[in-house]
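User:
Care to share a sequence and structure tokens?

Assistant:
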Amino acid sequence: MKQNAKALYGRFEKTVWGVAETPLPLWKERAQRGLRTVFILTRDLVGGQLTLRAMSLVYTTLLSIVPLLALSFSVLKAFGVYNQIEPMLLKFVEPLGEKGDEIVHQISIFIEKMNVGVLGALGLTLLLYTAISLMQKIEESLNFIWHIPHPRPLADRFSRYLSVLLVGPILVFSALGITASVMNIETVRDLMEINILGQAMQAISRLTPYFLVTVAFTFIYLFIPNSRVRVVPALIGGVAGGFAWQTAGWVFAVFIASSNKYAAIYSSLAILILFMIWLYLSWLILLFGASVAFYAQHPEYLYARSGEPRLSNRMRERLALSVMSLVSGRFLAGEPMPSLAEFTRLLGVPMHSLQIVLVALEGNRFLAQSSDEPPRFLPSRDPSLILVTQVLETVRAAGEEQFLSPGSLPAPPPVDELLNQIQQAVESSVSNMTMRDLALQISGRALHEPVFPKDS
């Protein structure tokens, strides 16, 4: 049995992660990528990082929900549509059943009793900070999924957060109001009386919650991460997240309706506990959809081992020469310079691994970033002044510390002599070859095609 199971697992691993000797048909390639995505998403959920960040968002939500809704309430009150907040909250906590109605009622009481006018400057500042902290926590979680180490500048974050908190509710309720007005038009009601059209409208009304949640998730995936997210991957993540959220709501509602043990065990705290569980599931589904969008845009991250991939020395050398030849070739041809996202797509290397090499090349002033958005990479000096041996030495020494370097590591004299011979052999083999020479040698090939093989 163990041998059969091991053989079956080996066949599965070869099918999913194996490198084909010949190009696969399009449908097989997409099926293989789909299996890899499912495997990686399952591993990410089991790994615990998404669950930890979902729990962190639950805690921040409990602290900021009243100030957040109070801020939206004050904005909507000026437009005379503040009465729509409670129906929207009821829709969100619908899986909780009657307990959700009680939660919404208590939150509405808190909002009505909160008087922003008597808070003062300090109180108003704390109110805004508490509301904005949730948006900041969401961005940090999505940046983690998208492997982005740095957040946006403070001014950019503040303007984006305020636009979401102040303009977002107006747009949402305006869209709902327009939809309700259209449905009340006499012509539309007459059309709904027709059998076929009426059934079609009923089907559309059932699908509307899925559509609204999908649009909301897609907007978050496009707008919040500090990265340029393409529309199609964001839409794929929005569809996956929206479907999962609606399905989880239905399952959770069935669970609540068929279980009365929580009230017997936790008494009056049962409502809060169930509300926190539903918040946790909602945030986890949001992060799950973000992961789907990320892997749809960056399939190069679909590798078997967990954690960030670490490049070997020869892979760093290969990647550094590929990067420099690509940049030098475009510079000499007068073509647009590549961005980080374009490097990732053309070379098929995860962003984190690519940045290690780019930082080393920038640190030795072989590359420089432009002020464009997103930044473009260009040679910081004439490619004819950059030796191939200099590039190789740069990536070999990347990451070395002063207290732990070849000079501080004692070695027997024969070892030093051998290493010197190897270095001299490398230098003599490429002599004074520059990046300009290397770029001109490969100018006959298409520089816009991936340097690495597709499945490497």
Q: What stands out?
A: Residues 49-78 form the longest helix (30 residues).
